[in-house]
Structure prediction request, 534 residues.
Amino acid sequence: MDYRNPDYAAVFTARLEALKRLRAEPDALPALKAYYGANPATFISDWGVTWDPRLPERGLPSLIPFVLFDRQHEWIDWVMAHWIAQKPGLTEKSRDFGLTWLAAAFACTTCLFREGIAIGFGSRLVDYVDKIGTMKPILPKCRMFMENLPVEFRGGWVSWRDAPYMRINFPETGSIITGEGGDQIGRGDRTSIYFIDESAYLERADLVERSLSQTTNCRIDVSSVNGMNNAFAKKRHEGKVDVFVCDWRDDPRKDDAWYAKQCSELDPVTVAQDIDRDYSASVEGIVIPGAWVRASIDATKKLGIAPSGLRGMSLDVADEGVDKNAACCNYGIEIEFVDEWSGKGGDIFSTVQRAFLICEERDHDGFRYDADGLGAGVRGDARVINAMRAANGQPPLLVEGFRGSDAVFEPEAQDVKGRKNKDLFANRKSQGWWNLRVRFQKVYRWIVEGVPSPPDEIISISSKCPMYFKLVAELSQPTFTINQVGKILINKKPDGMKSPNLADAAMIRYAPNAKPGMKITAGILAAVRGPRRR
Prediction:
């Protein structure tokens, strides 16, 4: 399927041929229905339709076959897995991804082929769930999907009888789709799965939370971004719910030209929130604006710069509870690897062992770690592991602590021209974050505004880096304030958000940290480590 230049006539022709074969062998229908019940994404691509009134201007029909692209197929599999496991989930989406149509098609397919299923839909307004005469709400999409299926798959469904207001019945299976809006979400009967559309825009999310906690075991929040001050944003970042991201780059119908057109036609905040999924777009006091971070993705490729310099790693040590350990590996100005793992139980020794393993796998000479809080124990554990390595004939790794609570690095110097470091930053942490901010600002100005910078003073995030989407989101979470004596303070967890562990690791990696008077040279490093065993 060429999604940018689709041949819908060929798809409809193939469907007609398949329908002829099916009608010639009606005994195959029960087995086919059972298969589709277990594989709803396949049924949607085989027989489903969607509707887009913007297509006729391109010479295409508005009613088109719903042929899923890969990320849409993955989303349906993800929802199915969470329903079977009785787990909630959250979907963060770029605009115009087709998620509402996809959820409607999934609900109809599941109810057609599984008995006794109840699927609920809720949105902040009743009219966004069901309204006669418009296709904007959710349930009219379900009705159109059902009306355009071959009769063999409708299970006796007829629109005038089985699709009243806020309800769609499936007579063959006894399953049902229901809708609710506003404060009434969750007040109806129990459901197998409950979708909340545009969850970030709910006016009284606390009421919905209490109601749905007793209504369903599988709540799926689906929304575009609406800043940080809402329940959806907090849930997305607190780490307790599985998150599925639908980015515009996952949509084969879109490319850089499409994105440039959106940027030229829409205001920057709308682009940042609805398309780039930037939670910080409307938040004041962001240390690193989302636009700067996005500009850094594959910056070395965009600018034709080959990464060079030291390779190394940083470790952000988890606090107790749901917090996670995080590692960040770089090659000079480019972040090429990030990873995180559970900190539950506070087993620092196993965390240090994993850090050593990452260094060994990636051929790094050592790592820098967060030496505040629980991270204080890393030093002793690293000494033990290095002793074990020496006993096995392995060279030691250089392990360096970073204390964000320390006084600033080079207090008399001026990281920002016109202000001494000791007069500008409250501590080493605020200095580290501000230095990272400057790197992102410089790469943004170079790529977007055409203002070049010394290459060693910028930063690049490789799109091949695992979890780079999460790193990008976290980097724009911290905010800053100015205290009473005019120094910069950093708040990593505004509005009670979860700690940005990956971003913290990146900050630690690039923060100035050498002890006064000490320069870590290649000669010193070689003397510490001895000959490298490959």
In short: The radius of gyration is 27 Å. The chain is about 40% helix and 15% strand. The mean pLDDT is 89. Residues 428-449 form the longest helix (22 residues).
